[in-house]
Amino acid sequence: MNRILAIANQKGGVGKTTTAVNLATSLAMFDQEVLLIDLDPQANATSGLGLEGDEGPGIQDLLHGEAAPGLVIRDTAVEGLKMIPGSHDLAGLEIELASADYREFLLAEAIEPITGSFDYVLIDCPPSLGLMTLNALVAANEVLVPLQAEYYALEGLSHLMKTVRSVRQHWNPGLKLNGVVLTMFDSRLKLSNEVAAEVEEFLGRALYSTRIPRNVRLSEAPSYGLPALLYDARSTGAKCYLGLAEEVLNKR
Amino acid sequence: MNRILAIANQKGGVGKTTTAVNLATSLAMFDQEVLLIDLDPQANATSGLGLEGDEGPGIQDLLHGEAAPGLVIRDTAVEGLKMIPGSHDLAGLEIELASADYREFLLAEAIEPITGSFDYVLIDCPPSLGLMTLNALVAANEVLVPLQAEYYALEGLSHLMKTVRSVRQHWNPGLKLNGVVLTMFDSRLKLSNEVAAEVEEFLGRALYSTRIPRNVRLSEAPSYGLPALLYDARSTGAKCYLGLAEEVLNKR
Ligand SMILES: Nc1ncnc2c1ncn2[C@@H]1O[C@H](COP(=O)(O)OP(=O)(O)OP(=O)(O)O)[C@@H](O)[C@H]1O
Ligand SMILES: Nc1ncnc2c1ncn2[C@@H]1O[C@H](COP(=O)(O)OP(=O)(O)OP(=O)(O)O)[C@@H](O)[C@H]1O
Ligand SMILES: [Mg+2]
Ligand SMILES: [Mg+2]
């Protein structure tokens, strides 16, 4: 069975895109066939892999049902990793599709024909619990939550869990929590360790033992359109995402 | 003429809330009468000032036209700073109001009776260019943009400027760019300095000379429900926001 992971957290700037790009790359390094879908109007995952969002039919045409998935899937610089690029046009879609029937199922229906040919499908979500994130949670069978070890990010976690439960009850009974991964973690800071302890108590085994440290190579890589593994494979950021991929592969 | 500043940037986690809370507090320290409005469904600015969002009539009742502003304005721990708290219910409002008439003017109309009694009104925006941020840009006469000195944040800047221009053309001819302030700035990092140089070239005088450094006291303060000035007035974070307030006061 193929695994479809929504990379979601309504808190902004917690490392969703960095996790989506680098986890997808790491899984491809472990010989998995991977598809990354950029569902964020900012289209950061798209530029983070060196692609242009707005050439030819894109994700918005897919969601409108006006382009087949085969037309929008693109190759990336990473062997084994394909992508459906994002687009700024997604921002208008939230308002435009607000009153459409089955508006929560648009992505699930659009990608249904192709998910079988990938081992992993990762969906990068925007920083909100609006229609795009709901579509990702309905299309996915697992949710992976990047969590910055800070107070505001922790504050939003219970609200996110409530939303996951509600999606499971109303639209997608098979949706389960894949896990929570701490990002930009600095073990020298009291705040980082306090948040880690609180999440461990709240979530227990759902917390990944891999923690992604703050590492400047992770934030430099996107300006070259490369994942960290291709930009600087010796960096701790790249190595930690390989470690996370191993944990994801072992967690069934 | 009172100044209404939308604190906006669709990129997540760039320091919008931290800037809104600490700039509002600093302006109040300089004897200004200040109102802070939390327009983000995460309601971080609300908890960052120690308030509870969901008690009694709130921002969503104000936007529906079902509560007068006087009913939703609350005192904070800071003398001279009042607040209209946020609420998780705002998330549903985006979809619910998507087809309402004058949906972009809801906030402007709701706060029109009270803006005259404040020197500064600051509006904390969610990380998107959706209906809430549009409402803030229509209600405001200036836009202050916190910008993290990172690649993905820089990438979104031109898109934000396009949106500001479009709001000026369609709904709010008086809207001007107040300025851009660099946040979480680390002068030891090549990336920080490269982004600063690029923004300076792109925007010139619109870039504030005050840069907010990365400072852990700024991220600890919200867990006590206090702005940095009340949590640790000796911290560089608190002092830099006082410096930013001075620049804002002098920039007419
Ligand atoms: N471990 C890390 N070390 C250093 N920088 C990081 C790390 N993870 C992410 N970053 C940087 O922090 C910023 C925020 O990360 P990112 O954009 O991936 O978060 P996001 O949750 O996708 O944001 P948004 O909510 O806007 O979609 C980016 O500039 C990114 O390059
Ligand atoms: N100068 C700083 N130094 C250290 N930490 C900071 C600084 N500014 C903000 N932070 C922390 O970084 C995180 C992101 O900041 P903040 O929540 O203010 O950004 P935001 O743009 O409001 O996010 P969102 O897009 O989710 O609304 C928070 O945990 C905050 O405490
Ligand atoms: Mg992102
Ligand atoms: Mg915020």
Strand content of chain A: 5-15%
- The portion of residues assigned to helices of chain A is 40-55%
Which oligomeric form is depicted?
A: homodimer
Rounded mean pLDDT score of chain A: 95
Main beta sheet strand tally, sense and closure of chain A? 7 strands, mixed
Please compute the radius of gyration of chain A using only Cα atoms.
17 Å
Counted by DSSP, the helix tally of chain A is: 12
Terminal CA distance of chain A: 11 Å
Largest interface, Cβ cutoff 8 Å: A-B, 38 and 38 residues
**SSE pattern of chain A, N- to C-terminal:** EHEHHHEEHHEHEHEHHHH
Strand order of the largest sheet of chain A: 3-4-2-5-1-6-7
> Low-confidence spans of chain A: pLDDT under 50, at least 5 residues?
none
The backbone outline of chain A, from C-alpha atoms, is globular
Class computed from helices, strands and strand pairing of chain A: alpha/beta
DSSP E strands of chain A, number: 7
Bound molecules: adenosine-5'-triphosphate, magnesium ion
Give a topology summary.
The structure is a homodimer of 252-residue chains.
Chain A: E1 3-7, H1 16-29, E2 34-38, H2 44-48, H3 59-63, H4 69-72, E3 74-75, E4 81-84, H5 90-96, H6 106-111, E5 120-124, H7 131-139, E6 142-148, H8 151-170, E7 176-183, H9 190-203, H10 216-220, H11 228-231, H12 236-250
Parallel strand pairs in A: 1-5, 1-6, 2-4, 2-5, 6-7
Antiparallel strand pairs in A: 3-4
Helix pairs in contact in A: 1-12
One magnesium ion (MG) is lined by residues 16-17, 40, 44 of chain B.
